[in-house]
Amino acid sequence: MLDRVPHALTSLSDPAERRLIRRCAAALKEVLPEPGDRLLHWDLHYDNVLMRHLGSQPRDSRPSWAAIDPKPLAGDTGFELLAALHNRWDDAAASGNVRGAVLRRYDLMTEVLGLDRKRAAGWTLGRVLQNLLWESAHGEPTWHADPDRAIAHTLIERY
User: Is 91 noted as a catalytic residue in this protein?
Assistant: First the structure.
């Protein structure tokens, strides 16, 4: 991804977007020396987690869950957080405090998973960078991912 950043910078017309891609790339460079060794789903979000049919479970057990549609990838768990931060984005936007909504979600996920927040932020910003590079490679002159932009700004300000 980092090798593609210079080309992406030349293809973006907005100076603020170029600054943001540089910040995301810098955050990724910080965590890149320790890439992680976990098997990641890579598309783990609400729509890809299903409750198994209750009829297939013992009466006294809790519902079991299944993650579907994996895109297997080995890496750091922090690289997995962005997809879940995107979910129910309309709720975050309607809250009137997008930054607070992002931080609540991010802090909850990192706490439950036992992740170092600064390190996870670096990997999450790396995932934002990946999305931006994808858009730039497909000829998009501006960045259309409002959730990514808001999430990136929030994590850069905090971490």
Answer: no
List 14, 43, 47, 148, catalytic entry: 43
CB neighbour list of residue 81: distance below 8 Å, 6 or more residues apart: 106, 109, 110, 120, 123, 124, 127
Q: Could you give the angle at which helices 117-137 and 146-158 cross, rounded to 10 degrees?
A: 150
Other CB atoms within 10 Å distance of the CB of residue 57: 13
Listed by start position, the domains of the chain span: 2-45+73-158
Two tokens, residue 77: 């768990």
pLDDT digits (tens, 9 = 90+) for 103-153: 999 999 999 999 999 999 999 999 999 988 988 777 765 665 689 999 999
Cα separation of 148 and 4, whole Å?
18
131-140 b/e with 16+ CB inside 10 Å = b? bbbebbeeee
The model's pTM is 0.88
Q: Which residues contact 132 (CB under 8 A, 6 or more apart)?
A: 8, 17, 20, 21, 24, 143, 145, 148
- Closest listed residue to residue 130, CA positions, set 99, 151, 159, 107: 151
Distance, CA of 117 to CA of 129 (rounded, Å): 18
Looking at residue 66, the DSSP 8-state letter turns out to be E
